[in-house]
Amino acid sequence: MAAADILTTFGTKRAPEVVELAALAGLELAAAAVLLEKESAGGLNVYGHDAVQTGGFYEKGGPVTKANYKLYKEHRATLGAQGVGPCQLTFPGFQDRADARGGCHDWRVNALVGFEILSANITAHGVRSGFRAFNGSGPAAEKYATDAMNKLRVWRDRLQGSPATTTHVVRPVLKEGDQGALVLSVQKFMNRTFPLYSHLEVTSKIYGPETSKVIAEFQRRAGVSGAGVSAAGRQIGMPTWAALEFFGFH
After folding, report:
1. Would you state the torsion angle of the CA atoms of residues 226, 213, 141, 133, taken in this order, to the nearest 10 degrees?
2. Are 110 and 98 in contact (CB under 8 A)?
3. pLDDT tens, residue order, the chain (250 aa)
4. How big is the CA angle at 133 (ends 224 and 131), to the nearest 5 degrees?
């Protein structure tokens, strides 16, 4: 079954566009589905329910239109910022960013900007912390992140094997102690892509303890879990290969 069909089956709105926009934003499709599920019941273009005054210009939980968004924006500084659209962009800077791209009221623009924000958060902080940062900080954000990770596991299971998420490169399982060109490629990729924590010597081509430490940190940050994931990063199996490819390994 195509990824868009799976998304639609489980309640995601405008699924073909979600597949397209997630790819444009460099966001894992399962994470995009989680974001829409949590923020707007699968991608409804509605206002949020934050505790701010509406001034009668829009209805909390009601549809976002170009006209009522214009009124909301004109009075935002006085009334307070409200969540807007499928990704519930609430921070004024994010709404302004969407407006500069064509309008926060526009479903496609809102979704793309939200996906880009989450993608950047995940790249910088890891999956769980990326979701937490999207929501804010404090206990509520921690709860949000925990729920997002639970939903992410469900969506990954649903989408596993769909054309939009299937890799066509079959790679062997790498284990600590292995050596060769593929090990070297992984080491160079980690150093290049994740310089904050990867500083591997790349002359030996050996999957040693230091490589294991870096892989373990990558798995933690990327939210890689399940069968084929060993403790302490001592193995690169299918789930880890998929995560590496998501970040650009080829």
Report:
1. -120
2. yes
3. 889 999 999 999 999 999 999 988 888 999 999 999 999 999 999 999 999 999 999 999 999 999 999 999 999 999 999 999 999 999 999 999 999 999 999 999 999 999 999 988 988 888 999 999 999 999 999 999 999 999 999 999 999 867 666 444 567 889 999 999 999 999 999 999 889 899 999 887 899 999 999 999 988 887 776 555 666 888 998 778 878 887 878 8
4. 35
Backbone φ, ψ for residue 167 (5° rounding): -90, 140
Alpha helix (H) ranges present in the chain?
3-9, 15-25, 29-40, 66-79, 92-100, 107-125, 127-135, 139-159, 181-193, 209-222, 238-246
Tell me if 66 sits within 8 A of 85, measured CB to CB: no
Domain 174-246 has CATH 1.10.101.10: yes
CA–CA separation, 133 and 138 (whole Å): 10
CATH numeric code, 3-159 = 1.10.530
Domain boundaries, the chain: 3-159, 174-246
- The first and second tokens of residue 18, run together, are 């979600």
If you ran DSSP here, which 8-state letter would residue 237 be given? -
* 85: helix, strand or coil: coil
Is the Cβ–Cβ distance between 18 and 111 less than 8 Å?
Answer: yes
